[in-house]
Write a structure and sequence with these properties.
The structure is a single chain. The chain folds into 2 domains: about 90 residues; about 140 residues, Histidine kinase-like ATPase, C-terminal domain (Heat Shock Protein 90), CATH 3.30.565.10. The protein is built from 10 helices and 7 strands. Helix 2 packs antiparallel against helix 3 and helix 7 packs antiparallel against helix 10. It is an alpha+beta fold and about 325 residues long. The two termini are about 70 Å apart. The longest helix is centred in the first third of the chain and has 101 residues.
Length: about 325
């Protein structure tokens, strides 16, 4: 039905002139009939013949075009059927191949997730075992007399703890959002435990600490923010020489950690957040893993925290943590 309607509309449109002329003659003939009784006149007779002739021509054209249209439609349908018959095996094979690839990919993805989970579980267990040994070592060190050797042992245990936790945090990054716990926290509650942890370094290197406890609070994840702050603080302690100063302050929404250390070269500062990049300072001191600041930057992105660094060689480095 739809095909006939579409054909009719197209045909009437293409033969509009002929149909218009026929309609004009018909209207004119009817008017002439009522006025002059045209059947009894010669003019009326010829008008009748002309109208009849045009009507026959229009009918013949309509019938001819309709048959032609049906032939074309039939021919196209046959071609489509032929194409479908010719390509069906190919299409079917491709479809089956695609479905198989999808199935294989799903299986591979599931296997990769399982292997990744096993890795995370293994490193988590490994880290906890190492931390258990560290805790036992700390208890033993406390029993030692206060000497420079005791201080050095304590520092090494802090480094081992830091590297162990760094590796564990790195492994857990893939499940970051599952481990996320947003709450209102005190900035001071994040900073104080870290100052206690690195106290032995401050004492050993005679570093001056400029920090006034703050009651300001922020909304974030305490643990992950602590990872960022610890990495910045540990770098400040590591690269600040004896009798240097580390200053910590919180103004507005930004935590600033400033040191009077050796500074970062301009050609290194653009790359300090790249994974594995240790820079000139790390290569000279042989104390950089190239993961700390990279991990901090990744955590910052996911917490919506902005990290920025200003540094001058020989004068020190300032890190801004905008929360």
């Amino acid at each position: 039905m739809k095909t006939k309607v579409e054909f009719s509309m197209a045909w009437f449109k293409s033969h509009a002139f002929l149909l218009g002329a026929l309609a004009f003659i018909e209207v004119f003939s009817i008017g002439f009939f009522f006025v002059f009784n045209w059947l009894n006149s010669e003019v009326g007779y010829y008008l009748f013949l002309l109208a009849f002739f045009l009507l026959v021509v229009a009918g013949a054209l309509l019938w001819h075009d309709w048959r032609k249209y049906k032939e074309v439609v039939r021919s196209l349908q046959q071609e489509v059927t032929t194409l479908d018959d010719g390509f069906s095996p190919v299409v079917s094979h491709l479809y089956e191949a695609i479905q198989q690839e999808k199935s294989d990919m799903r299986g591979l993805s599931t296997k990769m997730k399982q292997l990744r989970k096993e890795d995370v579980d293994y490193y988590t267990l490994w880290a906890h075992q190492i931390k258990t040994s560290i805790a036992a070592s700390q208890l033993l060190i406390r029993e030692l007399p206060q000497t420079s050797e005791k201080s050095l042992l304590s520092q090494e245990l802090v480094r081992i703890t830091t590297y162990t936790e760094l590796a564990l945090h790195y492994v857990r990054m893939e499940s970051f959002h599952q481990d996320l716990s947003i709450s209102t926290i005190s900035i001071d509650e994040v900073i104080r435990p870290l100052l206690k942890k690195y106290a032995t370094f401050f004492i050993s290197k005679k570093l001056h600490l400029d920090y006034v406890p703050t009651e300001k609070k922020v909304v974030t994840d305490s643990k992950w923010l602590g990872v960022i702050v610890e990495q910045v603080l540990s770098n400040a302690v590591k690269y600040t020489p004896e009798d240097g100063t580390i200053r910590i302050l919180f103004e507005g929404d930004t935590l600033t950690i400033e040191d009077t250390g050796i500074g970062i070269a301009p050609y290194d500062i653009k790359r300090i957040f790249e994974r594995g990049f240790s820079g000139y300072n790390g290569r000279v001191n042989h104390q950089s893993t190239g993961l700390g600041l990279y991990l901090s930057a990744e955590i910052a992105k996911r917490l919506g925290v902005t990290l920025s660094v200003d540094s001058t060689v020989g004068e020190g480095t300032t890190v801004h943590i905008q929360i």
